[in-house]
Structure of Amidase, hydantoinase/carbamoylase family:
Amino acid sequence: MESIAQLKQLLANQVEWLSHYGADSDGGVTRLLYTPAWLKAQQALAERMREAGLDTYYDDAGNLYGRLEGTEHPEEVVLTGSHIDTVRSGGKYDGAAGILAGLACLRRLYAQFGRPKRTLEIVSLCEEEGSRFPITFWGSGNMTGRWSMSRIPDVADAEGVSLGQAMADAGFGPGTHRPCRRYDLVSFIELHIEQGMVLERLELPIGIVQGIVGQVRLTFEVCGETNHAGTTRMAWRKDAVAGTAEMTLALEREARSAGDPYVATVGKMVVAPNVSNVIAGNVLFTVDLRHPDALSLEAFARRIVERFYSIAAERSLQLSHRQWMHADPVPMNEELVHRLEQTCKSLQVSYHEIHSGAGHDAQLLSAVCPSAMLFVPSRAGISHSPDEYTDAQDLAVATRVLADTLYQLAYVGGQRQA
Amino acid sequence: MESIAQLKQLLANQVEWLSHYGADSDGGVTRLLYTPAWLKAQQALAERMREAGLDTYYDDAGNLYGRLEGTEHPEEVVLTGSHIDTVRSGGKYDGAAGILAGLACLRRLYAQFGRPKRTLEIVSLCEEEGSRFPITFWGSGNMTGRWSMSRIPDVADAEGVSLGQAMADAGFGPGTHRPCRRYDLVSFIELHIEQGMVLERLELPIGIVQGIVGQVRLTFEVCGETNHAGTTRMAWRKDAVAGTAEMTLALEREARSAGDPYVATVGKMVVAPNVSNVIAGNVLFTVDLRHPDALSLEAFARRIVERFYSIAAERSLQLSHRQWMHADPVPMNEELVHRLEQTCKSLQVSYHEIHSGAGHDAQLLSAVCPSAMLFVPSRAGISHSPDEYTDAQDLAVATRVLADTLYQLAYVGGQRQA
C-alpha cells in the first residue's frame, strides 16, 4: 500500500472532490436523498469505483455498490462503506469519510493483491440522516429488512413530494435494479467521524466502537397555574417554569453523578402562555437519555421519572409523561472489535475503546451480520455543520487500519468468519 | 345610605348587567377599546349615570364622566372610577367593579345629601389593559399628560386598524368632545379587584393600597454551544437550557429568601434550536421583578444580574442582558390612605395594608392629584379570566367605605384638602 503521506493526500483530495456534489455557498454540503446533487454524487462515485477496477451496481433503493468478486467464496461478502446523504447544510465528512476511506482500501487492495478470496464490497448507502423525509436509515434499512420496497412509507418531503415519487424520479424503486435485501454479508465495517470530542481530547487518531448507545426519549408536561406575576406571592405560586428548571437541573446532576458514558439532555422546551408578566401554567419539555447498557439505561430512566414526579409533588404541580422513543443499545461484534484492536496494535496505532452516542447504519447491519465501526476524530466535536472537519492524517491512519482488517477478512484464510 | 344587604343585591345585579356588554359565550367578557361592545357599555353607563342625576360628558379619548357639580368649590373635583375595557376573554370585575361601586356611591350620596360642596365625579376610563392596541393607560394617560390627542401613537390592532381610525370610528378623537387633560382634580380614589390571593387568605374584605410596586423587566440571552445530545459528554457541554434552569432556580430562591413583597418571575423562555436530540446553544428568557420600594427593587435587580453572570461564568456560557422596562414604585397619598383607614375603623370594617403588584390607573392619576386605592378580594386570586369573581358582600362593604370617604372629601369642610 502507499505510504500514510500518500494516503493522506489522496483522501484530502477526495473529500474536497466529493464535497462539490451538493456544495453550499457557505462551505457546507447539502445532499438530500434522491435530489440531483445526491444522484450526481452516486454517479460520480460509481465512475471512480469502476476506475478502481470494481464492478458497480445499484439496488432498488439507490444504494451503490462496488464489488470485487471473491475467487474462493464469492457468496461470502465482506462489506465496508457508509452513507452518501447529508443533513441540510452539513459537512464534508459525515458519511462521506467512510465511503472514501473504503474506496481507497478496495482500490489499493485490488491493485496490490488482485481479487480477494471472499467477495469484498463497498457501499455508498443512499440515506441515513432522515433530512428530506421523516424516516431514517432508508438505505441500510432496505438491506436488512427494517424497510422494504414492498411497503414504501407514505411520507413526503417539505414540498409535498412523496418518497415513492422522489425515488422513481431519481430512477429507483421496486424492480429497477437489484433487490435491496442482503443475505450474503459476513461482516460490515463502517468508518465514520466521531461527532464528539473524546478522540480529540485524548489526542488519539482512532476510536474502536464497542457499541452504539441505547436511547430513551420522553416528553414531560408540567401543569401549574397561570397567574399574575405581580400579584401572586412567591409562596403561593404553581410555576411550571420553575418546576421545569428544577427537573432540568436534577437531570443534569443525576447524569453527571452517574458518570460517563451517561448523557441526558433537555433539548426542547415550550412554555405557555410564554409572556413576561405571567407565571407560566404549562411547560412541555423533552428528555433524551443515552447509555450503552440496556439495564443501566432503563434504571436511569426510571430514576429520572421518579425524581421528576417527586419534584412536581413538592411544588403542587401536575406532571404527566410519555416515552415516545426507545432504542436498545447495539453492541458491536466482539470478534470484529478484537480484530480491529489487533490490527491497531500490529500497526502500532494508538486507539480508544469508545461508545457511539449517535445512531449509525452499523446498528442496522449488525442485525444481519457481524458489524463494527472505526471512529476518526471530529475537530471540536462539531458535526452536521459546514465546520465539520477531520484531519487527513487521522483519516489516513484509520483507512490503513480498515484496509488491513479488510485484507484479513477477505484475502486471508477460507473459513467463514466474523 | 341603604343597608349593606341592599347594596350587595344592587351591586350583584349591576355586575351582571354590565357584563352583558361584550359577553363571551364562555361566561367571559371581551370589551376592547372602541369596539361596538365597548361603545354600548359606555352609552349604557351614561344612561345609568343620568338616571342617578349626574351630568354626563365624554372627553376626546372616550373617557365617560358623571358629574355632580359642587355648590361651593365647583372647580375642585373629587374623582372616583376605574376602567371599562377588558382583556380578551376577561372577567366581569376587573375595572367594572370600580365603576359600578363609584356609581352606586354617587347615586346614593346625591339622593341622600343633594349636591356636594366640591364637585364629585365618576369616570369610566376608556382603556387601561392594552389589549387591542400595544399601549396601556390610554384613558388615564390622556387625562394626565402621558398621552396626548396631539400625538396619537402610530399603532394598530391585530387587524391593522390604527388607533386614530378606531377612535374616529367610535366617534372620538381631537375636538370631538371635551379636552382630556384635567387640571382640576383634588383627589382620586379607585376601587379595584385585588387580582391576588392576599385578602382571600386573610379573610379580609378590604385592602387599603399603600403603593403600587415598581417593576423591572429584563431579557437575558444565554449562549452556549449547540451540540449533539448523544456524543457530547456531560462535562464538556455548554448547555444553554441547563444554565437557564440554574438561573431560574437562583432567581426563585433569591425572591423567596428576600421574603414578601418581593416577586420575581421567569415567564417567557425561547430555546434554540429547540430539538429533542440537540443540546441547546441559545436561550432567551425574561425576568419580571417587582417591589414597592425603589431602592430595594434596584438592589434586588443588581443582585440577580450579578448572580446570573456568575452562573454563566461557572458554566462557560456567554450571557448578555437588556433592561427594557423600569417603572418606579408609586406610593399612594398618605393622607388619603389614612382617611380610608379611619373610615374603615369608624365603620368597624377590618382591612389589610396591601401593596398592588399590578399597575393601575391610580398610578397615573397620582402624578396630578392625591390618589388612593381600595382593593376587594379576588376569589383564588384569579383575574383576566372568565373565572374572575368577587363576593358581592365584600364589594358592598368596600363601596360603603368608598361612599363615606367621598362624602368626607366632597361634602364636609371647605378647605382644599388631599
